[in-house]
Structures are given as C-alpha cells and as structure tokens.
Task: inverse folding
C-alpha cells in the first residue's frame, strides 16, 4: 500500500501508513524505507528522501548504513541530482568511512550531471583517501571525458587504469566506442574492438550494435561485413535486437536492395526479434519504392499486431504510397487519422501532396475540410486571400 500510494505521489498518505505501522508495532524493514526513499527521489523530492533516510532508526528499521546510503546516492544519480548526492555524502563522512562503492556512486552522479570537473575532484579525493578506484569508477570518468570531447585525457586515463592492474570491462570499451561512433570515426571503433579481443574482453549486444552501425555507416557502407557480423554474433549466443537490424535496413534502403530487405525481415521474425517503429518505417519506404503496395500494407498490419505505435514518419510513408498510386480516399483518411486521432503534425510536403491529389480528383470539399482541420489545430494559418475557400463557400 505504501509503495502504491508513493508511486502515485500520495506521499502524505504513505507516511501516515508508515507512522501507523510504527504505532501498532508492525515491523518496518529497511527495504520498505528504501522503497519509499526511491519514490521520493523519482518524484524529485530529494530533501524528503534524505530526511526519511536520517529517520530510519526512529522507525525501527536500523541505523543508516553504507549500503542504504549507496542505494540513495544511486537513485539521486539517476535523476541527475548530483549536488544533493554530494551534500548527503558529506554529511555522513563522519558517521562511517566512505568506501569504493560510495565514492564510485558519487563520481557517477557528477558524471551524469555533466560536471566532469566535480567528478574528477571526487575521483582525486578518493585516491588521496587511500581507496583504489575500481572498474566502474574508471569507466564513469572515461565515459564522461569522451562525452566532453576530451579524447586524449580519456585515453590517458584508460592507460592509467590498465597500468594500475584494473582491466577494463565491456562497459568501458562500449563507452569509448560510443564516442567514436557518434563522431563517425569508423577506424577507431574497429581499433577499440581489436583491443577488446586482445585483452580477452567479450563483446555484448551494445558492442555488436556499435560495430554494426560502423559497418553500415557512411564511412564504410559495407553490407557484406555487416552480414558476417550478424552471423558471428548469433554464433556467439548474442541475440540481436532491432538496433542490430536497423543500420542494415538503412544501408539496404540506400542501396535499393529490396530482396535483402525481405530476407532481413524474415530473419528478424525467425529470431523473434521485435522491430521498433524505425524498422517498420524503413521497410514501408523500401517496399513503396518498389511499388509493392501489398508489402507496405502487410508491414503496417504487422506493426499494428505488435502494438508498435506509429509516428509521423509512418504516416508519411503510407500517405506517400497512397498518393503515388492516385488513391485519394486512402491518402485523405490516413492524413485525417494522423491529425485527428494521433495529433501528429504532417510535414509540408506530405500535407501538400494530399491536397494536390484532392484537387486533381476534384474533391474540393474534402480539400477544404483538411485545410480547416489543420487551421483549427494551429498547424497552419489560412492565407488572407484564399480564392479556393471563397469559391467553395459561395
């Protein structure tokens, strides 16, 4: 009951139940207190969370300990409340000596908050206190350095990490890969992968997806390498997801290879890999390019069956397909659904495409219904001198 009330932000009622438990001598576990603390943090009420943490002993849940403090700091970190995490950390320094877990959680909080300077300060303080950073501490700072564009310093810290006898793990290399992928540095991505192999560090789904994005990106556009990577990761027991297939489908779209798109879609189904909206949009655009309306409609049907919510690009692909075949009825109803039911704003080319088709089909009344609908929602403004509207009104 307390968790449910707190989940829906009924905190006074949750605290009332907690107080009633204490009055009735019903045992209150540290886990219950921690659950309520996390709900406070998620609701961005850090002061209430800290207050309840300090009052744990008063509720008979035991005195605050390092493990509970680490959980609270971790919750604050997820919400990027680094200053609040630092204040709480400082207030308990004299109560118990911070360990590597507490320091690492605080470093991570500052990294997530975008304050690399503070993260480095805590990292240095940690070492000065005689506490050796672990792989998670190093990874958090290295990741933050790469995100801040401080590549040489990040590489230097990676070398320091290895020299200190702390081998990087998969998450460390993924953080480095992410920075290179975003910057389009395909050669560096492959170099990082080679370094992983040399150190005997096994790649995970995130690693493989970064490699897939690299093979399919502008720098390489290597579909053969992407296909081999897919085979290799499956052989290693790493099940691909939609983020594995989407870069390949994007490349196939550029190459215009519809047969390969069919095979990839079938492979996804064989592997029970659930597509996302990007997957479906790419497939619809591919099959529309090949004038395969049956496949476009099949993909949309599969999308609905999987419960994947369409976005503006989905409707744009459908409207483009209907307009390309002169089907003004389907184009009209699809645009109405997009605007009226989904409250999605069509781009000007999509909107103009439907209006042009309606004019060509002599459907001027439906043309003006769409215009009025767009005006009512504030998507467009009607021109002061609208000759078409005046003619229809007359």
Result:
């Amino acid at each position: 009951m307390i968790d449910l009330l707190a989940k829906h932000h009924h905190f006074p009622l949750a605290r009332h139940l907690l107080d009633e438990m204490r009055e009735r001598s019903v045992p209150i576990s540290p886990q219950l207190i921690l659950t309520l603390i996390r709900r406070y943090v998620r609701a961005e009420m850090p002061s209430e969370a800290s207050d309840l943490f300090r009052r744990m002993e008063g509720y008979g849940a035991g005195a605050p300990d390092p493990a509970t403090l680490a959980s609270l700091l971790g919750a604050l970190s997820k919400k990027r409340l680094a200053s609040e995490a630092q204040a709480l950390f400082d207030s308990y320094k004299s109560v118990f000596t911070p360990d590597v877990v507490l320091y690492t959680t605080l470093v991570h909080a500052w990294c997530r908050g975008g304050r690399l300077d503070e993260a480095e300060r805590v990292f240095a303080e940690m070492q000065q206190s005689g506490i050796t950073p672990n792989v998670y501490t190093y990874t958090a700072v290295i990741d933050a350095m790469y995100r801040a564009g401080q590549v040489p310093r990040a590489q230097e810290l990676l070398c320091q990490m290895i020299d200190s006898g702390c081998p990087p793990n998969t998450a460390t290399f993924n953080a480095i890969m992410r920075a290179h992928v975003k910057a389009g540095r395909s050669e560096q991505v492959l170099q990082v992968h080679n370094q992983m192999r040399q150190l005997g560090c096994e790649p995970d789904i995130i690693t493989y997806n970064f490699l897939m994005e690299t093979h399919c990106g502008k720098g390489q556009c290597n579909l053969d390498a992407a296909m081999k990577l897919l085979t290799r990761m499956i052989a290693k027991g790493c099940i691909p997801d939609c983020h594995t297939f989407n870069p390949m489908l994007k490349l196939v779209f550029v190459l215009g290879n519809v047969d390969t798109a069919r095979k990839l879609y079938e492979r996804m189904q064989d592997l029970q890999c659930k597509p996302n909206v990007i997957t479906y949009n790419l497939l619809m655009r591919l099959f529309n390019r090949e004038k395969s309306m049956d496949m476009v409609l099949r993909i949309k049907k599969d999308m609905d069956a999987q419960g994947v919510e369409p976005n503006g690009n989905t409707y744009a692909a459908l409207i483009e397909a209907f307009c390309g075949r002169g089907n003004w009825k389907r184009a009209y109803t699809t645009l109405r659904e997009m605007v009226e039911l989904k409250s999605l704003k069509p781009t000007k080319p999509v909107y103009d495409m439907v209006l042009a088709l309606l004019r060509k089909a002599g459907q001027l009344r439906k043309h003006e219904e769409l215009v009025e609908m767009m005006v009512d929602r504030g998507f467009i403004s009607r021109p002061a001198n609208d000759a078409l509207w005046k003619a229809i009104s007359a």
User: Anything to note?
Assistant: DSSP finds 23 helices and no strands in the chain. The mean pLDDT is 92. The radius of gyration is 28 Å. Residues 1-64 form one domain.
